[in-house]
Specification:
This protein is mainly α. It contains four helices and no strands. The two termini are 12 Å apart.
Length: 101
């Protein structure tokens, strides 16, 4: 479980943006936060040896990655937001994959 703990800690250290200037990108922030909450709660329970009372549903990570990555010609601030969201989603995907093996 060392790998799970390392990924968990790394994910926790990644910033999550507060707001994007592009309205559609801004909406993606909340979707990433919801997904992060579920996956991190499941990971935390697994790390502490507790069987989670819910099933892990991270099937939409790839869809979110595509949605966040589709934005072109963003301003400088939104490019940072996009990069942060994509980094967070990549780590969440690794955690999900590890938990569902």
């Amino acid at each position: 479980m060392e790998t799970l703990q390392s990924l968990y800690d790394f994910c926790e250290s990644l910033p999550i943006p507060d707001k994007g200037m592009e309205e559609e990108l801004d909406e993606q922030i909340f979707m990433v936060i919801d997904l992060e909450t579920m996956i991190m709660a499941y990971a935390e329970a697994s790390l502490s040896g507790v069987q989670p009372n819910f099933s892990l549903d991270g099937d939409n990570i790839e869809k979110l990655q595509r949605n966040v990555g589709r934005f072109q010609e963003l301003g400088e601030e939104d490019q940072v937001v996009q990069k942060q969201l994509l980094e967070k989603l990549a780590v969440l995907k690794e955690i999900r994959d590890l938990l569902t093996r």
